[in-house]
Amino acid sequence: MLVNCVAYQNGRKLADIPVEDISEYVSRPDCFVWVALYEPSSAELDQMAGEFGLHPLAVEDARKGHQRPKIEEYEDSLFAVLHTVEHAPEGDDSPLSVGEVALFVGPNYILSVRLHTDKGFADVRARTEREPELLRHGAGYVFYALIDTIVDRYFPVVDALESDLEKIEEQIFVRNSARSNIEALYGLKQQLMTLKHAVDPLIEVIGKLHGGRVPQACIGLHEYFRDVYDHLVRIHASIEGIREMLTTAIQVNLGMINLNETEVTKKLASWAAIIAVPTMIAGIYGMNFKHMPELEWEFGYPVAVFAMVAFDAVLYAWFKKTRWL
C-alpha cells in the first residue's frame, strides 16, 4: 500500500505526486522524492524499482523480509534494514511486536518499506517538514531521521523491561513464589534477547556512517549519525545491565528453590525420626514369642507408651531448637 509520495526541493515540500512522475522529479537538481510503502505487493515494489532504479538484490531482500539489521552500499545508493521493537497490543501471544523497515536511499530519493509494524513515520515527516534548513541536506537527512526515530522507540521498551524486573525482584523472597518468578524471569530474558538482536547489529553499521569512509548519501551528516550511535551504545549498556541482573535473579531464585526443598527434606526426616521410635518399640513388643522379657509385666504397657511419648517429646523439642521443624 502506498502511504505517501512527496517531492521536496531546497528543503520544502513541493507537492504530493503520482508514482508515474517520480523519475521526472528525481532528475531535477536540488530535488528529492520521499516515498513510504506499507506491506507492499511485489508489483508495487517492482514499480518503485523501475522509477528509482533500485538494485535487484536490495529489492529481493525487501520483498522477502526477515533480514538481519544491516546497511549495504550499492554504488551511490544505500539499502538498510532495521527492526522495530514495540509493545504488542493486549491479547497477543508475545509481549513484544517485532517489525521490519527497509530503507532505500539515493542521491535524490528515499523509499521506506514497512513490514509487520503498524506504527508509521507520519511524525517524522511532519517534524522534518518543519525544519527546512535541515531538510536541505536531502534524502540523507530523512535517512537519519527515520533511523533516529526507530532507535528512540527502543528506549520505552528498555524502561519497561527494567520496571518488570524490579517488580519480579520484589517477589524473590516471598514464600512459595520462586517457581513463578523463574518463569517470569525467563519470559523477560526472551524479550531482552529480542531487543538485543535488533540493537547489536546496528551498532557496527551505524558506526560506519560517522567515521572512516562515509557513504555519499550521508556526507555532511556524520554528527547526526554519531548521535544515533551514542543512543545505541546507551541502549546496549542498559541491555547488558538488565541481562546481568536477570542472571543474578535467576540464580537467587534457583537457590531459593533448593533452600525450600532442603527445608522440606529436613521436616520429612524429622517426622520420620519421631515416628521411628514408637514404631521400633511397638515392633519389638509386637513380636509373638512366648519367652520375651517383660512380656507378662503388669506395668509393661504404660511404661512402653510413656517411653514412646517421652522419646518423641525430646526429639520434637530438639528438632524445633535446630529449626528442622
Describe the structure.
Helix content is 57%, strand content 17%. It is rod-shaped, with a radius of gyration of 35 Å. Among the domains are: 1-135, 2-Layer Sandwich (Beta Polymerase, domain 2); 263-321, Magnesium transport protein CorA, transmembrane region (Methane Monooxygenase Hydroxylase, Chain G, domain 1), CATH 1.20.58.340. The mean pLDDT is 86. It is built from 10 helices and 7 strands. Strands 2-1-3-7-6-5-4 form a 7-stranded mixed beta sheet, sandwiched between helices. The protein has helices spanning 22-26, 42-52, 56-64, 122-129, 132-135, 139-152, 154-170, 178-207, 222-285, 300-321; strands at 2-9, 12-16, 31-38, 70-74, 77-87, 96-106, 109-115. The protein has 325 residues and is an alpha+beta fold. Helix 2 packs antiparallel against helix 3 and helix 8 packs antiparallel against helix 9 (222-285).
Largest sheet: 7 strands, mixed
- Number of beta strands: 7
Strands of the widest sheet, in order across it, are 2-1-3-7-6-5-4
* Spans of at least 5 consecutive residues with low confidence: none
CATH class of the domain at 1-135: Alpha Beta
Report the end-to-end length measured between terminal Cα atoms: 69 Å
Write the CATH fold name of the domain at 1-135: Beta Polymerase, domain 2
Give the DSSP E fraction (strand runs of 2 or more residues): 15-25%
Q: What Rg do the Cα atoms give?
A: 35 Å
User: If classified by CATH, what would the architecture of the domain at 1-135 be?
Assistant: 2-Layer Sandwich
